[in-house]
Design goal:
It is built from 18 helices and 17 strands. By secondary structure, the protein is an alpha/beta fold. Among the domains are: 110 residues, 3-Layer(aba) Sandwich (Aspartate Aminotransferase, domain 2), CATH 3.40.640; 60 residues, no CATH class. The strands form four sheets. It has a seven-stranded mixed β-sheet, with helices on both faces. Strands 1-2-3-4 form a four-stranded mixed β-sheet.
Length: 655
């Protein structure tokens, strides 16, 4: 680390791991000071449980800290869903991605929570936003938080010390065996081992139903967590002893185990000092606290949620049950594929079903939400253009009515956004689109389009729109947010799209969880399939797999994204069948038109299709009430809430 050359002046930041991927704990204090002296920011990736014992990154001078909260009570689930975290100082708060909740006061002067600094976000800043984040991992963040609430600082300290003690006992035992070299660097829960034949030891461990990480032919790392037992250690000792009897047990080593963390890196500062983390340490206390919180939420248990294209479907119990099954929850994302044959079969079946529904040739299940799907799909398009030598194609045409994630995602992909307007009926202005496409024909990369439109209209000219883009060398990216009005009736592939993401947490029944988790798999036509994302640890690519593969890289940390929640959508599709899925779309459209008809004599319905109908959503115009009665859309939304209805989408796509 000391050898980093900052003299070129082009280094903007450094990312370090604490603890490292092979278990090592390094003191980054001087390194951070040197980086800061050169104007370089430092990002530290870390582990929450380790920080119970280690000096926190903020005290080492890190500017930004990132990591996963999975370890706080959330199952591995073959890769997710898990909540990540990003922490930084007040200095950088306006550059942070995603939502931030701040404290304010309500109309009665009581403390209230509300969204803060929204002007950073995509629904306002669009292509100038700090990120394209829309769906997050809110439900998983709450699970991790409640794990910390239940255990409290002392309980977490006990867990961390036990995990560290298991790693320490393992290191002591290996030294007694004599033929194994244990790394000399400090460690928390992962021990690096040098041996004669790493693959032979890993194979022996495999036969004892233990997976070890082989770093190279002579190096293995072994990690421990709160599920590890003393019996597991005894099995490992026998494996490393070549199957021969061992003269000691893990329990007998306890008196010899010492803290492996240097005193200078031990945590001295307090943590989780808020009273919430020091009150609810029994199951019934936590249960009552959770019930108190959830009783403040409006959910499908109470009434409908009329949030436009995001309208949730009923989350049937049968669909949700597999999420709790150990066969799905307890698999590590990097476990050998032969240990996850059930998952693999489900992936293949789900991929085939989604291809049939959408008219595409291949699917990637890696993106974790709609915004991630947009980013992945646009990166696939970019990789396709580059493969043809069209490195210069970087223009993305986006209607002004598009959801804010569209321009934000395009900006993240390094594309230049060219906006096009809509006509008085809410349709894309085709002549304006044609002029934009022809003016940029040598640089055109893609069009991002939502169908039905965000105005709640089936655009008659969608096939012509796709043809214009294709004739000028571009690809059509369809935002799948409104698939509720397509499934079984038409499809992106039939319409002419080249790539489309699906919001499985909208159209295919995964609960939205207060904003997440979500899944945003992308479907593509055959010519784009080779470029679907893969993973450096476990190869993924498209389902079905294309004949040739040139993956663009990796979109999510886990090979299959949030694999644990895919059984929800798979079960929903399998139980509904072709007719049931089609009926669901028809009923959504019928309900929207019923409501539009009931309201049309009292509120102007802004946009309709050529036959006078709407799609699965519609927009009512309340602007007149501001002039006649001083009433804003927010007032109507709050009044609906008084009657038990969640407030509908407001101020978008019409200001």
């Amino acid at each position: 680390l000391k050898d980093i050359d900052y003299s070129s002046g082009d280094v903007c930041g450094v990312l370090v791991q604490y603890p490292g991927t092979e278990g090592e704990i390094l003191d980054y204090g001087e390194f951070v000071k040197n980086a800061h002296a050169q104007g370089v920011k430092v990002v530290m990736a870390t582990d929450l449980l380790a920080l119970i014992m280690l000096k926190p990154p903020g005290e080492l001078g890190a500017d930004i800290v990132v990591g996963s909260a999975q370890r706080f009570g959330v199952p591995m689930g073959y890769g997710g869903p898990h909540a990540a975290f990003l922490a930084t100082s007040q200095e950088y708060k306006r550059m942070m991605p995603g939502r931030i909740i701040g404290v304010s006061v309500d109309s009665s002067g009581k403390p209230a929570l509300r969204m803060a600094m929204q002007t950073r976000e995509q629904h306002i800043r669009r292509d100038k936003a700090t990120s394209n984040i829309c769906t997050a991992q809110a439900l998983l963040a709450n699970m991790a938080a409640m794990y910390a609430v239940y255990h409290g600082p002392e309980g977490l300290k006990t867990i961390a010390q036990r995990v560290h003690g298991l790693a320490g006992a393992f290191a002591v035992g290996l030294k007694k065996l004599g033929n194994i070299e244990v790394q000399g660097l400090p460690f928390f829960d992962t021990v690096k081992v040098t041996c004669a034949d790493a693959h032979a030891i890993a194979d022996a461990a495999y036969k004892s139903e233990i997976n070890l990480r082989v770093v190279d032919t002579k190096t293995i790392t072994v990690s421990f967590d709160e599920t590890t037992t003393l019996d597991d250690l005894d099995k490992l000792f026998k494996v490393f002893a070549g199957g021969k009897p061992v003269s000691f047990t893990a329990a007998s080593l306890a008196p010899e185990v010492e803290n492996a963390i240097p005193s200078g890196l031990l945590r001295q500062s307090s943590y989780l000092t808020h009273q919430i983390f020091n009150m609810y340490h029994t199951e019934h206390e936590l249960l009552r606290y959770l019930h108190k919180l959830q009783s403040k939420d409006l959910s499908l248990c109470h009434s409908m949620i009329p949030l436009g294209s995001c309208t949730m479907k009923l989350n049937a119990t049968t669909e949700m049950m597999p999420v709790t099954w150990p066969g799905f929850t307890d698999i590590h994302p990097f476990a050998p594929s032969e240990q996850a044959q059930g998952y693999q079969e489900m992936f293949n079946n789900l991929g085939d079903l989604l291809c049939t529904i959408t008219g595409f040739d291949s699917f990637s299940l890696q993106p974790n939400a709609g915004a991630a799907g947009e980013y992945a799909g646009l990166m696939v398009i970019r990789a396709y253009h580059k493969s043809r030598g069209d490195h210069h194609r970087n223009v993305c045409i986006i209607p002004v009515s598009a959801h804010g994630t569209n321009p934000a995602s395009a900006a993240m992909c390094g594309m230049k956004i060219v906006p096009v307007g809509t006509d008085s009926k809410g349709n894309i202005n085709i002549e304006e689109l044609r002029k934009a496409a022809e003016a940029n024909r040598d640089k055109l990369s893609a069009l991002m389009v939502t169908y039905p439109s965000t105005h709640g209209v089936y655009e008659e000219g969608i096939d012509e729109i796709c043809r214009i883009i294709h004739d000028n060398g571009g690809q059509v990216y369809m935002d799948g947010a409104n698939m509720n009005a397509q499934v079984g009736l038409t499809s992106p592939g039939f319409i002419g799209a080249d790539v489309c993401h699906l919001n499985l947490h909208k159209t295919f029944c995964i609960p939205h969880g207060g904003g997440g988790p979500g899944m945003g798999p992308i479907g593509v036509k055959k010519h784009l399939a080779p470029f679907l994302p893969s993973h450096p640890v476990i190869s993924t690519g498209g389902i079905p797999a294309p004949d040739k593969s040139h993956p663009l890289g990796t979109i999510s940390a886990a090979p299959w994204g949030s694999a644990l929640i895919l059984p929800i959508s798979y079960t929903y599709i399998a139980m509904m069948g072709s007719k049931g899925l089609t009926d669901a779309s028809k009923i959504a459209i019928l309900n929207a038109n019923y409501m539009a008809k009931r309201l049309e004599n009292y509120y102007p319905v802004l946009f309709r299709g050529v036959n006078g109908t709407v799609a699965h959503e519609f927009i009512v115009d309340l602007r007149g009430f501001k002039n006649t009665a001083g009433i804003e859309p927010e007032d109507v939304a709050k009044r609906l809430m008084d009657y038990g209805f969640h407030g509908p989408t407001m101020s978008w796509p019409v200001p």
